[in-house]
Amino acid sequence: MADAERGVTGLQAEGGEIAARSPLALFWRRFRKDRVAVVSLGFIIFLILIAAGAPLVVGLVGIPGPTVQNLSLTDAFGSPLGPGSGHPFGVDELGRDVMARVIYGTRVSLEVGIIGTVVATMIGTVLGLIAGFYRGAIDTLLSRFTDVVLSFPVLVLGLGLGAACGVRGCAGGLIQPGLGTILFIIAIVNWTYVYRIVRGQVLSLREKDFVEAARALGASDSRIIFREILPNLIAPLIVYSSLLIPLNILLEAGLSFLGVGIRPPAASWGQMIADATNIFQTAWWYMTFPGLALLLTVLAFNLLGDGLQDALNPRSGR
Amino acid sequence: MSHLINTRVFAAVGLAAAAATLAACGSSSNSSSNTNTVKQLPLKPGESPSQQQMYNGKKGGTLQVYNQEDFEHLDPGAAYFSVDYEAMYATQRPLYAYMPNNDTLAAPDLATAQPTISDGGKTVTVHIKPNVMFGPPVNRAVTSADVAYAIERGANPNIGNAYFGPYFGAIVGAEDAKGKVIANGGPIAGITTPNPTTIVFKLSSPTASLLVGALSLPLSAPVPASFAKPMDAKKPTTYGSKYVVATGPYMFKANPKTGEFLNVGYFPGKSSVLVRNPNWNAKTDPRPAYLDQININVGGDQTVIGRQVLTGTNTMENDTPANTIVKLAYQKYPSQIVFTPGAGDHYMAVDNKHGPFKNVNVRRAVWAAIDRTAVVRVLGGTLVAAPMTHFIYPGVAGYDQSGGASGPQVPWNVNPAGNLAVAMKYMKAAGYPTGKYTGSATIQYVGENAPTATARDEIGVQALTALGFKVHATYVDQATMYSKYCGVPAQNIDACPNVGWIRDFADPQTVLYVPFWGPGIVPTNNSDWGQVDDPKINAAMDKAALVVGDAARAQAWANIDRMLVDQAVAIPEDFDFQPNIVGSGVRGISDIWDIGTWDYSFSSLK
Q1: Considering only CB atoms, which chain B residues are within 8 Å of A259?
Q2: What pLDDT, on a 0 to 100 scale, did the predictor assign at position A16?
Q3: Residue B380 and residue A94: Cβ atoms within 8 Å?
Q4: Whether A180 contacts chain B with CB within 8 A
Q5: Among the four A77, B66, B470, B592, which has the fewest Cβ within 10 Å?
Q6: How many CA atoms, within 13 angstroms, populate the side-chain half-sphere of residue A92?
Q7: Separation of alpha carbons B285 and B376, rounded Å
Q8: Between chains, do B474 and A177 touch, taking CB under 8 Å as contact?
Q9: Which parts of chain B sit beneath pLDDT 50?
């Protein structure tokens, strides 16, 4: 990034004096004013802690683990018992504690959301940088390929891959059943959105003076791409990634709902919701709690994304 | 009831594969012990199906049926599905048919009496009623030639019949010496019609008993050759999908001149309408046919359908209601639900030929470990299922002789709730000193991807995990599970939970033979899912197939059942009971010989 630009932006008037602030300090100053975003960030940190310490949390609450079956907690018709002191969120049709499964489901959602987003962002960024920087035939080829990938119906693709790779994996073991399949689907589909954003930005940035200057100084293409252009993409990438995470969480939930995703007995919110549909009228809690967890998590990431957008790009004027 | 439906389909495929080597069996009639007053049910709302009053219904009215599933085939030559049978036995008249409350002996329907068996079980003679008429547009009397054509077309590949080989393959000229079906829809030498009311079957082996049992299947319902032959020349035939001719009390609403019922009385995936067959003669038929019309609506959410039926008046559901609806009906509408035992069984097929389950003691250990009472709970409780304790299920001859509800009293079977200590004892006997599996194999476990099915399959995973196995569980749709994995031995799937079986007619051979007879294992569409191929069991089955007499056959197959338990060839899960619901204004009569579905020809409005 051009140091001159950063310096001008960093000048702030306080008490009549000019104080220099780093971009990070400026970002934080703006971000913390957005209370909704801060609360969302706090909730996400809370989720991450819950996910990381799931066994500990379940132990502290005093509930059985997420795969412990106890059919004595179902009635004579096989209907699960509702929330009570021993099981605050009730149990499912196998007598498993719903709270424990919601807690462990947080792990799956965050793993898929974050890992999937990181992988998709990396692929999209690299390809977007190459297409935008070199333009011409490479750009055309990559952009048309992107159009093709974008035309895939994601859920149908997921169902197909789930069927093809569900038992022993496929592509020589590259795609493993369960979480591996989900991450693969997310990666091969969602990089395209990142690609388009990055490519557009690079097409603009490559014409800037600082790029011309670097070129004039004899910088190689890779240096220009990764040392000059890429740092200028950090802000939009952060914003877009934060918005991609909830999409990926929802996609995982959708695929798990359709039976393609995480394999039982591992807990996933989408799968829990799917399992709950046929007994919703007698076991409302089974769908409600994972549904609520999914709703709040997606909402938190979306609100955080908006907050990041405002803080990183104050001129966007939301 | 999809599990049973599909089981039937896959059973058929397996049967076809095994047909080549079906051994002989000789008996003069069907056999069974009536065990349909099963004791496990704590309470049975409504009328007990085995004691139901089949007659004294009110004549007239229109019944509204709400089903989740549509028909698969409406050609009597191809129908092999419980929902299809609901329409088949209302619109067609096979030679023999079971009365709703009798699952032991098929009564003469088109036939005048029970068949005559002669020539040491190699000849079967059936006389048919002379005054049974085809419905529009054929409008003439049925002859024995129509029955002959109906059965012969079962070998026509354009028809797609699934059981011709195993049940009719012994007819002279139907198969070659190697057991391959050589008939192709044309005349079969072993079927003759000396006069319009007599049909004679000559068999190449003394298998009259099996053939007689199979004459209750829809394939023996007459088909007018002059009408159907041009259609049967096409692949697939349009008989049954576009045109069909009725002989039963009802017919699909159709164009009276052409007989076309597609998009007239049958809208695939949506609805169908059964109306009275104007040519039906009540004097020739034991079925009362009280209803004037039956409207069948297809599709929708199971719980919505269930509520619609229970709160309705002239309503009926004729496939399996959701668990929540069973509970609701039992608690709030007890007179509108009945439970029929003898609706099949489910078990976990384990690979007897490869991997850890090759060892009989490992199989016994898993049997001892699995909590079958938990399976029952997941399925909806003891109203709809009971712990499976052996392989002949309630209602099938030999059930009592092989141990009844509690089954053979061997250590791995006596505790339906599972006993890990006993299981570990057998693991030790299998060579695992700690009582837990210490090998390197990961169990490939392929189950069905559906809410209740997956839940029940997880009980199996828990049993395996408790014994130290690392389980790679995958859940796919039911068709994929059978066609791509469990029915393909080369896939080396170690365990397939929730596979099941249902009889085709009242003979225990139809329950045990295909799923456990080793020589019947085929590379694809295999129905011996566990690749059970025990020479002693194979020989015993071959011998039992030739046993004559109801009691003797029941005992012979019960003995085989005990052998199967002793070798723990599969891991039992549950015996199924079928719940059926109706609206408050319907007097439903259920077919206990099938899986308890309502019989349109006997049900009536109040």
Answers
A1: 449, 475-477
A2: 59
A3: no
A4: no
A5: B470
A6: 36
A7: 40
A8: yes
A9: 1-43, 45
B355-411: per-residue pLDDT in tens?
999 999 999 999 999 999 999 999 988 889 999 999 999 989 999 999 999 999 999
What the block records as the tokens of B559 is 């003995």
Interface of A with B in 120-179 (CB under 8 A): 163, 166-168, 177
CA A91 to chain centre: 28
CB B391 within 8 A of CB B340: no
Residue with tokens 């007018």: B224
Distance CA A250, CA A13 (A): 44
pLDDT in tens, A248-284: 888 888 888 777 777 788 888 888 888 888 788 788 9
Which residue in chain B is spatially nearest to A259 when comparing CA positions? B449
CA angle B330, B305, B338 (to 5 degrees): 30
> Tens digits of per-residue pLDDT, B484-504?
899 899 999 999 999 988 888
Prediction pTM value: 0.79
**pLDDT, mean over chain B:** 88
Residue ranges of B 154-173 with Cβ closer than 8 A to chain A = none
Backbone φ, ψ for residue B250 (5° rounding)? -120, 160
Please give the pLDDT value at position B592: 83
**B373 touching A (Cβ < 8 Å):** yes
Task: For residues B554 and B549, give the distance between their C-alpha atoms in angstroms, rounded to a whole number.
Answer: 8
Contact A78 B454 (CB under 8 A): no
Among all residues of chain A, which has the CA nearest to that of B462? A69
Chain A residue with minimum CA distance to B493 = A167
Per residue in B87-126, pLDDT tens?
999 999 999 999 998 888 899 999 999 999 999 989 999 9
Which pair of structure tokens corresponds to residue A42? Answer: 């706090």
Among B330, B445, B474, B491, most A C-beta atoms within 10 A, so best to mutate, is B474
Contact B377 A259 (CB under 8 A): no
Alpha carbon separation from B8 to A308, B2, B4, B85, B527 (Å, rounded): 59, 10, 6, 12, 11
Say if the Cβ atoms of B324 and A279 lie within 8 Å: yes
Cβ contact (<8 Å) for B380 and A77?
A: yes
Separation between Cα atoms, residue B391 and residue B407, nearest integer Å: 9
Q: Which of A50, A32, A29 is nearest to A41 (CA)?
A: A32
Which pLDDT does position B50 carry in this prediction?
A: 67
d(CA A300, CA B247): 66
Q: How does pLDDT run across B189-202, given as a tens digit for each residue?
A: 999 999 999 999 99
DSSP reduced 3-state for B324 = helix
